[in-house]
Each structure stands twice: as structure tokens, then as C-alpha cells.
Amino acid sequence: MKIKICGLFQNCDIDFVNEAKPDFIGFVFAKSRRQVSMEWAKAMRSNLSPEITPVGVFVNESLTKIANLLNDNIIEMAQLHGNEGETYIRELKTLTAKPIIKAVQVKVHADIEAMQDSEADFLLLDQGAGGTGQTFDWSLVGEVKKPFFLAGGLKADNIEQAIRAAKPFAVDLSSGVETDGKKDKAKILEIVRRMRYE
């Protein structure tokens, strides 16, 4: 099971993940309390362990900005959380060869069905716009043709249940590994240990 720790914005966050070794981390470029600038992401990326894949999180961002971040190797994947449609995804694919994740707000199974043939490489199934810390009904997931990240309110006490119910390619945690709005080293280490060794 792959693990993504999203919303890194402090230097110490990089130290935490370098020790824990999740598969992916996320830098949020969209407006958020965890938002980072291109310069700050570049500085943090330079200290990130090479075995961890950095992902950029965007909401209706300009194609050029995303392509530049990908092609300059500041991030290795783009995660789209806005109203980006298939035309936008196709255009982004002409600008970069790197993978694209498209977020889906899951209210009913049809929300996932509508995205089964998306040109995105991965889906990310979430409760809402992202960063809400709320779960959704995992029984809605059913069969998904594409590999997908499961997000939304995941933490140590519900992650195993979520995985059994939804069978994702990867789990995506942010507020579930924070204390008082900051990444918590002990929580990150615990969740990765639990996922890897149990």
C-alpha cells in the first residue's frame, strides 16, 4: 500500500518524511493554510529524500505554471483539485510527460463512474474540495478501473477500515498526521510504520 503525506510547508516536515519514508508527499500551491510558493517548494525539494515522490496540488492553476514546476523537477506529479476538465488534462499532457492525478468529490458512485475514462493517470477520491478533514462513505467506491488515491479524514484509527472498504492504490493523509495545524512527527512515523509493517 502506497502512502502520501500531503501539505508539507515547514522545513521540519521534510525531516519528518525523510525519516518515515512515505512513497509520496504533497506541496499545496493552491490557496490554503498549507500553501507554498514555487521558491519554497524548490528549497524543500532539494532536501527531500530521492526515494520520495513530490506531488504538487493545484486548483484551476495556469497550465504553464504547472508544466514549469513539473519540467523543472520541483514536483514529479500534478494533482488537480479544481474544475479542470478533460481538455485541460489533455493540454497539460502535451506540455509534460509526468503523471497527473485528478481529484473527484465523491457524493455518489456516479461521480467516480463519470471519471473512469479520464485521461488523468490516477484519480484521487475525496469527500470535498480537499483539506476538509472529513471522510466520505467508502462503500460508494466499488469498482474503479484506474489506480486511485483515497483521501479525506484518514488517520490512524480509521485507515485500516478505509483500505479494506475501498482498496485504493494509495492513501493520502494531511490533517490526520497533524497536531494544532502542524505536521506531527510521531503521527507520521506511526502511520507509515502501521501501513508498512502490520
Note the topology:
Blueprint (H helix, E strand, L loop, with lengths): L1 E5 L4 H10 L3 E5 L9 H10 L5 E6 L4 H9 L5 E4 L5 H10 L4 E6 L3 H5 L8 E5 L21 E3 L8 H8 L3 E4 L4 E2 L2 E2 L1 H13 L1
Parallel strand pairs: 1-2, 1-8, 2-3, 3-4, 4-5, 5-6, 6-7, 7-8
Antiparallel strand pairs: 9-10
Oligomeric grouping of the chains: single chain
Output the CATH class name. Alpha Beta
Percent helix range: 25-40%
* SSE series: EHEHEHEHEHEEHEEEH
Main sheet overview = 8 strands, parallel, barrel
**Architecture, CATH level 2?**
Alpha-Beta Barrel
Q: What form results from the Cα inertia axes?
A: globular
Query: How many beta-strand segments?
Result: 10
Number of helices: 7
Structure report:
Strand 9 and strand 10 (182-183) form a beta hairpin. Helix 1 runs parallel beside helix 7. This protein is α/β, with parallel strands linked by helices. The termini are close together. An 8-stranded parallel β-barrel has the order 1-2-3-4-5-6-7-8. A two-stranded antiparallel ribbon has the order 9-10. The protein has one domain: TIM Barrel (Alpha-Beta Barrel), CATH 3.20.20.70. The protein has 7 helices and 10 strands. The protein is globular, with a radius of gyration of 16 Å. The longest helix is centred in the C-terminal third of the chain and has 13 residues, at 185-197. 41% of the residues are buried. The mean pLDDT is 94. It has helices spanning 11-20, 38-47, 63-71, 86-95, 109-113, 159-166, 185-197; strands spanning 2-6, 24-28, 53-58, 77-80, 100-105, 122-126, 148-150, 170-173, 178-179, 182-183.
